[in-house]
């Protein structure tokens, strides 16, 4: 049985996950629509993976309601899983098999015909830019290639919904950009993506809509630009001072910005006009060791919402 609205891919209400006494997910509402790239952004331990595992229908919920592709994971787990693609946090490829063999094994697991498996594997290696590594063992691949293969493998069954748990953690910048590029391509084919990440740039790049998670709760929800507009200012002036000079500077800059955040190594002045604030700071005789005017990011949103930095 499908839900009333076929375009709702995931619907969670007051969804909770407990491990013994510990509540990892504390009653969250989530609504993911067909074709969107939806993100869970939050630091380690926020409850992102626990949520993903409930959506993947491999971990039962402790409380609340959950529908995935219109079905109840408790009763229809196998039917849901047949239509999902899952990219876990840790690659779980068959390392002693080749790239092509990995795709073949998985395709047969999903019950595809031999001819279909062969064609699909070639198509997916092309997509993952691994065709020239087809006959190489997984062990010989770089981290980025392994991730691309894991994603390719998750697409063997043409899933309606692809779940990616921290897809680029541990990759170097070049490998991350290549992977983002592939995920962009996937988005254009209409696959719904759900991504967990603690990288704000990843969330900004990939997600149409996201929730900021912290301590098992949702702190905010919206598109990256909506969240930035709602919780931050257009620009941020970052000031770094020589040792001992930051603390006395704080009260001399508070009226130069809508809000000032004091980090251990710098002050963040939230303002619509960073350069103007910097000029005023100079006019007041403040002499920062360095200064930087930049646009607000989701990192600023997270800091505003939680008082902590995502990268701590
Ligand atoms: N099987 C488990 N048993 C007990 N506690 C768990 C279990 N799985 C997760 N937790 C705890 O639940 C909290 C949320 O973990 P979860 O993995 O969902 O967070 P996360 O946001 O995905 O972070 P990470 O990126 O580190 O996976 C953490 O404090 C974690 O220690």
Automatic annotation (TrEMBL):
| Alphabetized SUPFAM superfamilies for the sequence | P-loop containing nucleoside triphosphate hydrolases
Q: Which GO terms describe its cellular component?
A: plasma membrane
Family matches, as SMART domains: AAA
**Which GO BP terms, alphabetically?**
response to antibiotic
The answer to whether UniProt assigns keyword Lyase to this entry is no
Which UniProt keywords are listed?
Answer: Antibiotic resistance, ATP-binding, Cell membrane, Membrane, Nucleotide-binding, Translocase, Transport
Q: Origin, by domain of life?
A: Bacteria
Q: What InterPro entries does UniProt report for this protein, alphabetically?
A: AAA+_ATPase (IPR003593), ABC_transporter-like_ATP-bd (IPR003439), ABC_transporter-like_CS (IPR017871), ABC_transporter_ATP-binding (IPR050763), P-loop_NTPase (IPR027417)
Subcellular location(s) of the protein: Cell membrane
* Membrane topology recorded in Swiss-Prot or TrEMBL: Peripheral membrane protein
Annotated Gene Ontology MF terms? Answer: ATP binding; ATP hydrolysis activity
Q: Which family does it belong to?
A: Belongs to the ABC transporter superfamily.
**Per its record, how is this protein called by name?**
ABC transporter
Native species: Prauserella muralis
